[in-house]
Amino acid sequence: MITIYHLGLSQSDRIVWLMEELGLPYDLQWFDRGDDFLAQDDYHALHPTATSPTIRDGDLVLTESNAIVEYISHRHGEGKLSVAPEDDKYAEYMYWMQLNHNLQSAFFAKMAAGDQADENSSMIKTMNSRQRRYYSHLNNQLASNAFIIGDSLTCADIMAMFPITMLSGMTGIDLADYPNIQAYVERVSARPAYQKAMAIAGPSAQRPE
């Protein structure tokens, strides 16, 4: 059975969602953040990078969301939520699997700049421009697709929901400006597996007693 080491308020909620979509059993172990909002020593002991998500499957301890969702999908989920290399949409799938990192790069750049960042600085202008391009591109992608890669949920959606829902407002993005993305979020949020995962490990979830 896969163990998910869940750091409160983190990207590991997507792994819980993935497991619920695939109907796979898992053991969820909850780790609290410290007063500085960083992972504490018990989480650092799991893996040298101390990043979230982290999973264990037998002797394997694995980090990095992209690696984890593809590993679970192929090793335990018969590839149901992945796109195979021989599929015509494989390159498109691989592209959208990177959306999480691209949106987060803008978020962390702005966070590093701090509250006093000059909106006219070249870095902030570059990050804002990059954000708008990605959101516009995704909005166009969803104009004729129920999900990011066509009519079926894939790991690309598992990867995308966290930055879209958690980081958009924090980086000044109003989803009302992107109606196809907004409708997509509402569609995905209505899925029973997503709702269960968010109740267990989402941003407002509490450590079980």
Keywords:
9 helices; 209 residues; 2 domains; globular; alpha+beta; Glutaredoxin; Glutathione S-transferase Yfyf (Class Pi), Chain A, domain 2
Write the layout of secondary structure elements.
Blueprint: E1 2-7, H1 13-22, E2 26-31, H2 41-44, E3 54-57, E4 60-63, H3 65-75, H4 90-96, H5 99-113, H6 122-141, H7 155-167, H8 179-189, H9 192-201
Parallel strand pairs: 1-2
Antiparallel strand pairs: 1-3, 3-4
Helix pairs in contact: 1-3, 1-7, 1-9, 5-6, 5-7
Question: How is this structure best described in words?
Answer:
The chain is α+β, with helices and mostly antiparallel strands. The protein has helices at 13-22, 41-44, 65-75, 90-96, 99-113, 122-141, 155-167, 179-189, 192-201, and strands at 2-7, 26-31, 54-57, 60-63. The protein has a 4-stranded mixed β-sheet with strand order 2-1-3-4, with helices on one face. Strand 3 and strand 4 (60-63) form a beta hairpin. It is globular.
